[in-house]
Design goal:
Layout: H1 3-7, E1 18-27, E2 32-41, E3 48-55, E4 60-66, E5 71-74, E6 77-80, E7 83-86, E8 89-94, E9 97-107, E10 125-142, E11 145-161, E12 167-173, E13 181-188, E14 197-204, E15 209-213, E16 219-224, E17 230-236, E18 239-246, E19 251-256, E20 262-280, E21 283-298, E22 303-305
Antiparallel strand pairs: 1-2, 1-11, 2-3, 3-4, 5-6, 6-7, 7-8, 8-9, 9-10, 10-11, 12-13, 12-21, 13-14, 14-15, 16-17, 16-22, 17-18, 18-20, 19-20, 20-21
Length: 308
Amino acid sequence: MNNMKRFALQDKRKRNYFEGWYVRILDQAQGLNVALIFAKTHFHKDPHAFLQIFDAVAGTNRYLRFPLASFSFEDGCVRIGEQTLSPEHIHVSEADVSVTLTISNPVELGKKSAMGPLLALPLECYQEVIYMAARVAGSVRLGTKTITIENGQSYMEKTYGRRFPKRWFWLQANRFDEQVAISLAGGKVPTLLFKKFGYFFILHLPQKTLVLATYNFARLKFSEQADGTIWFSLKKGRYKIHMVARQIHPVVLVGPQKHGEMTLDVPESLESTVHLEVYDRHKLIYEGFSEAAGFEWMYKKTDQRSKT
């Protein structure tokens, strides 16, 4: 599966269905930390396209509605009115927001899908990581502030299906040193045939990319601590990964409930932190810390272990 196949429109259903593309834009030196969501919903009572603009520095999220007919996917590009998104560019021109960026040097997954063989199952929600990290350059205007970006950072993924899981977590970070990046997603998926809980974790290191997931029988434990941090521990074969994540200044975004109805409150932070340790046969091979991590914590059970 190449990058464009992961990005491509799925359109699995024409009714009671959602599909969206999520892209982060980050330039910490200039105080820019933004996520954009290009999406559509086919909820039968309120079908429409929309753009969400999440400004983590201002602590705001805007939900801009468009007629469903304004959405199209052509030549590998998402279009909502005049707004366009592809793996190579971002363009937004709406009211007091303007984004014109080129995307380069993406860190991709090669032929692998983040969900592996789970893509073949009748799930309520699917997720693909389009790239773990990339460089962006261009300009961003938010209100009266215009920022010229020469060496910004980015991350891109997409989700689609009938609804978000009933409970889930999501963690993404690429501000470690040495070009290290992570993407973790897990949740309760009622229609998962052989498990009630599924997850994937992607770790990009300079030498290799590791994938630990439900489908390759990796083990995961996580717990919410009294100080508000979330501890994650993963193991597969010779590798062990430990992470401590802290959610900081979450802002409420809008997500899909049953049938793709866009009424779900989703607290998300783009200012979270992650401490990461990677072991190979008990030897610490990487330790690092990332600020500006993306984090959603919608899983309140204090401890969960994936069964293998």
